[in-house]
Amino acid sequence: QTVYQNYQRIKIQESPGKVAAGRLPRSKDAILLADLVDSCKPGDEIELTGIYHNNYDGSLNTANGFPVFATVILANHIAKKDNKLAVGELTDEDVKVIVGLSKDEQIGEKIFASIAPSIYGHEDIKRGLALALFGGEPKNPGGKHKVRGDINVLLCGDPGTAKSQFLKYVEKASSRAIFTTGQGASAVGLTAYVQRHPVSKEWTLEAGALVLADRGVCLIDEFDKMNDQDRTSIHEAMEQQSISISKAGIVTSLQARCTIIAAANPIGGRYDPSLTFSENVDLTEPIISRFDILCVVRDTVDPVQDEMLARFVVGSHVKHHPGSKEAVNGDANEVILPNTYGVEPIPQEILRKYIIYAKEKVHPKLNQMDQDKVARMYSDLRKESMATGSIPITVRHIESMIRMAEAHARMHLRDYVVEDDVNMAIRVMLESFIDTQKFSVMRSMRK
């Protein structure tokens, strides 16, 4: 007798994080039958159990001139991998260490100090990246209106100020990160694209970088070099956290809940302090307002700082030399080099586990939050931004402040947002606002 069943063919690919550097991730076709159909979407991480099977395809033989078998996997079971598994990898001892760390008074400073310890200075960037790694709390009241919880950071500044270094560091520290550059990534490569399956001649959907980085971090270098068409596709991903596709008869929307950390170079290579931020960067207003934290890295001449920086660089080179007496085994980032915080950084491995634990287990609530403070802050900033004509302050910035306060609370593994968190958020907000002003305005504002 003939049995009729639902049939779906999917293509699975190695997860980009586990592939050895410089190798392309391998992919394999799998066949889902009956109730397994539609059990996973593009961009999901799955564990697939099945039978390795060959099917004879006459067309392949004529193409190759000798008998060839195409192999597929007949799926029996699909397990979706969620972030819960990442927490499952933490042992009880890890959890003890993590909770012990969070009791420390200076844990915030310690975390800031252990972000990219091999880079000297740039405290404001480290602070911003730390908040972005922990992330705020996404809200979805009654399933009607989604508010994103991820914090997006834009680094912009002079060449040679370690912008890409920071991105590379975040890629290592985060549990799920995709690194891409603006020039090499087209709109398709970032969001998703439709292609024809060579065998069945059907249109299939392939997930791009933002979809693969779902629930993780997407790092984009050379953000200013992107074409305009690609930027529009990023607009939606950054605020609505989903990507809608309507191409070749496929109309669907994919989840892209990821933090975006981008690095851009100013127009003409160097940042000109006499102009405002938006005149310096070749980015449109809508996209600038979607970033919560804007960091401007300036290469200023300061004899004392420069000497310290030089010593730091030379010291780290000496320590990493293979033949050196005090050679340090392990990651380049792990060397305890003197930092500007005056506290001892946390080892990278523990920091990574700490972030995973905090993101999964801690969900800070806002009830005792000082609402007047944020409201006052917002109206003052708006007044200033009107007066100085710099980046426009929009309602999004209120949400940004709240997100940063949540991230700071999460960093301390607190269940509620306290005043400290709000102050920190306001501080980061102010720094990012003042940094993007013209030089003349900046001096008066610092006071």
From TrEMBL:
MCM C-terminal AAA(+) ATPase domain ranges (all copies): 107-313
Pfam families: MCM (PF00493), MCM_lid (PF17855), MCM_OB (PF17207)
EC number: 3.6.4.12
An example Gene Ontology molecular-function term: ATP binding
Broadest EC class assigned to this enzyme: hydrolase
Gene Ontology CC terms: MCM complex; nucleus
Family: Belongs to the MCM family.
Protein name per Swiss-Prot or TrEMBL: DNA replication licensing factor MCM2
